[in-house]
Amino acid sequence: MSVPRTLDGFDVTAAVERMLDQPMLWWQAVGLFVEHFADWEQGWQESVGDHGREQKRVHALRSAAANVGATALAATAADLENQLLKCLAGQEIAVPDSLRQDLRQSFRHTWLSAAGAWKSATPGSEGRLG
Q1: Which of 100, 112, 77 is nearest to 7 (CA)?
Q2: Does residue 126 surpass a pLDDT of 70?
Q3: Exposure winner among 36, 41, 86, 92, fewest CB in 10 A?
Q4: What share of the chain in percent tops pLDDT 90?
Q5: Phi/psi at 112 (nearest 5 deg)?
Q6: pTM of this prediction?
Q7: How far apart are CA 76 and CA 130, in angstroms?
Q8: Domain definitions of the chain by residue range
Q9: How far apart are CA 78 and CA 65, in angstroms?
Q10: Band of pLDDT at residue 127, cut at 50, 70 and 90
């Protein structure tokens, strides 16, 4: 299995350094990210309107994205999560639709980049770890 040195939407160098300079460990984490978050968007959309559920889904994505070096996705998720946390703390604010649109676009771009790379690097896997 070939580990890419670059991946659109990812800071591969920083992520590999955090993973004890083991590229294969990072690549396995990317594979888990692809598998685990394959249906994330649908579940997230179903949670919109319930700030607690949505915050948990966005937090999970933010954490996983940061772990694998998807820094832009992690930052976008953090922006939405911070707004949701303010709502949960009782602040009467509306969560801007633009935050959700930004997260949707960033997620799609990042996940598709990772899924495409994972699938091409692991023929026959169809993006799944086995």
Answers
A1: 112
A2: no
A3: 92
A4: 87
A5: -65, -35
A6: 0.91
A7: 30
A8: 12-119
A9: 10
A10: very low
